[in-house]
Write a structure and sequence with these properties.
By secondary structure, this protein is α+β, with helices and mostly antiparallel strands. It has 13 helices and 14 strands. The two termini are 39 Å apart.
Length: 441
């Protein structure tokens, strides 16, 4: 399925009941799991399986057997259900107006009208009503994550300094990684950790014997990217998670790591590809002055324009720009500094202003021009090229730390939700009746 590459889980519309011709009622949908006070229906799981299989094939990944994939997708649905329940308890809602705006945005990203998008979804065998609810759930999950997880994450300058020191700060190589996690619960006993390690070692043995990494990840990984074949995407060398930082640079492309033990369990990494990146970054800054004239109750638009051209004539005859700016400019931020806006990189000013100053050489003065703020006269005093590699490096480090901390906090929060939830399985992998539960602790 090509429309939704970012997520492999969908919710399905309830099927209800159908009457046989002989008037005997037959149940065509069944409860497959109870999650606290809510349920997951077999139709929901079937729909999610359909979407997941379609997405995997679109990415060139052969899905594992249906019973294996079914188990992974069901666990994903359980986690999704727990998060939407948290959103409801927190009073977080997504009304139809917001939902329609998001769906229109998704359609536009796919270069479709909403009507064309709906038709495409139906053509791919997806229930549009179910898809609407899937999108609503994803919005709820994002918002509850922002409320419950993100406020707990803080990145300090000391964090950045330590991060850069630990990573050397010089590795500009980018790595494409795939990942398998065999998770270990918080506070696990040695026996539980040993069992998890044994499972991880068996998976590693299968991979070394030639098993497809993506299929093994889909079927067995406890990581958030399991249903994407464990794909972690491209990572800057200085942005690698700490637990992988000393391992990944030593791998050859296509090589699989040994087991990497961490607090959350046992990890296996495959280096899919790597590339050189992170060239030195520079920015061209411009030092500029301006005079701003805005219409007011005593001076209409035409009079403002006329005064701007009158001041321009005076400048052309040798008047001092800074003196005129101090006397006439309506910009309170630069007026007292003679109109000086300082050294600024591209993108700081509105496009009309930026276009005008980009056309000027140092020492040149523009003719009056109009922006949303009024009439301007600009003068470029100088240009310089500044190396911002260090700033960019720190910004990347900050983002990497933020992403890592948010991911770790999110994973921990999800584990707590799952451990504290009541989950009762009603159907086994073959669709037969069963009854097993993981009650809340």
């Amino acid at each position: 399925m090509k429309l939704f590459p970012s997520r492999a889980v969908a919710a399905a519309l309830l099927c209800a009941f159908a009457a046989q011709a002989h008037a005997a009622a037959e149940v065509i949908d069944r409860i497959i799991a109870v999650v606290n006070d809510d349920v997951i229906l077999e139709s929901e799981l079937d729909q999610a399986l359909h979407v997941t299989e379609s997405q995997l094939r679109d990415r060139g990944i052969t899905p594992p057997s249906e019973d294996v994939l079914r188990s992974q997708v069901l666990e994903h649905l359980i986690l999704l259900k727990l998060q939407t329940q948290q959103a409801q308890q927190a009073g977080i809602k997504v009304d139809d107006r917001e939902l329609n705006e998001v769906l229109n945005g998704i359609a536009a990203q796919n270069k479709l009208s909403l009507a064309q998008f709906i038709a495409q979804v139906k053509q791919e065998g997806i229930d549009y009503a179910a898809l609407r609810e899937q999108v609503r759930d994803e919005i709820l999950v994002n918002r509850v994550r922002q409320k419950e997880v993100d406020p707990r994450v803080v990145v300090t300058d000391q964090d950045i300094d330590q991060f850069l020191a630990a990573h050397g700060g010089n590795d500009r190589t980018e790595y494409r990684l795939s990942h398998i996690l065999v998770a270990v619960p918080d506070g696990a006993t040695p026996e539980v950790r040993d069992k998890a390690r044994a499972k991880a070692e068996k998976l590693l043995e299968q991979l070394r014997a030639g098993a497809d990494f993506a299929q093994v990840a889909i079927a067995n990984s406890d990581g958030q990217q399991a249903l994407q074949g464990g794909d972690l995407g491209w990572r800057d060398g200085s942005s690698l998670p700490t637990v992988f930082a000393n391992v990944v640079p030593k791998l050859a492309v296509g090589q699989i790591s040994d087991l990497i033990e961490a607090a959350n369990g046992y990890n296996i990494i495959k280096l899919v590809d790597k590339r050189e990146g992170g060239e030195r970054q520079t920015v061209t800054e411009t030092q500029v002055r301006h005079i701003l004239l805005t219409p007011n109750t005593l001076r209409d638009e035409d009079a403002t324009r006329a005064q701007a051209f009158e001041l321009y004539d005076r400048l052309q005859k040798g008047a001092d720009f800074a003196a005129l700016a101090k006397k006439y400019s309506d910009d309170p931020g630069s007026k007292n500094a003679g109109g000086d806006l300082g050294w600024q990189p591209p993108g700081v000013f509105v496009p009309e202003f930026q276009k005008q100053i980009d056309a000027l050489k140092p020492g040149e003065t523009s003719q009056p021009f109009h922006t949303q703020y009024g009439w301007h006269i600009a003068q470029v005093e100088g240009r310089r090229t500044r190396d911002v590699t260090e700033q960019a490096r720190r910004a990347r480090a900050r983002q990497a730390i933020l992403q890592r901390k948010e991911a770790e906090e999110y994973d921990a929060w999800l584990r707590r939700l799952r451990e504290e939830a009541y989950v009762e399985y009603r159907l086994n992998a073959d669709g037969g009746e069963t009854a097993s539960a993981t009650p809340a602790s």
